[in-house]
C-alpha cells in the first residue's frame, strides 16, 4: 500500500478548512458584521470556539454592543455562561460597557443574570453608573444583594461611585444596607471613603449607621 504524505494525512484528519475562519468571525462579531458570523456558523464553525484571547464570539459581540450578532449567536446555541479569560460573562461585559439593547437580548434569551464567584451584570452596571441597565436587570430578577468576589454588593459599588439615582433604585428593590464587604465595609463606609456626601446622607436616612 502506498504511504500517504504527512501533509495530506493531516488535512484528512482535520477536515476541510472553513471558508470563513474563526479570526474573520471574531472580527465580524466585534464589528457587527452579521453576515460574516452567519457564514461562519453555516459552514459548521463551532459557536463557542475560543479565540487566541480565550473569548467566544458571543463575548466579543457583547463587549462591543453588537446586539444583532448576540441575538444570532444565542439563537444558534451559544452558551451565555461561558466566561472570558478574565472571568467575565458576556452579559456582564455588555452591562459594564453600557449596552442596554444587548443586555435586553440576553434577558430575552433567559441568560443567567448571576455569575458565581465573580461580578454580576448588576455589579458592573452599578459600578459604572448605568442607571437604565440597573433598572432593567432588577426588573428581570437580578439578585439585588448578590456578592462579588470581594464581597461587594451593587449598593456598595453604586455608593462608591456616588450614583444617587442607582442607590435609590437598589434601596427600593430591598438592598440590605447592613451588609459588609470582605474587608468589613458597608455601603455607607464606601460612600464616606470616597467623599460621596449626598449618597452617605441618603443611606443614613435609610437607617445606615457609621
Automatic annotation (TrEMBL):
Tell me the InterPro entries matching this sequence: Ankyrin_rpt, Ankyrin_rpt-contain_sf
Source species of the chain? Niveibacterium microcysteis
Give the Pfam families listed for this entry: Ank (PF00023), Ank_2 (PF12796)
Q: Which domain of life is it from?
A: Bacteria
Write down what this protein is called.
Answer: Ankyrin repeat domain-containing protein
Q: Can the keyword Lipid biosynthesis be found in this entry's annotation?
A: no
ANK repeats: which residues? Answer: 53-85, 86-118, 117-149, 150-182
Entry keyword Disulfide bond: no
Q: Which residues form the signal peptide?
A: 1-19
Keyword terms, alphabetized: ANK repeat, Repeat, Signal
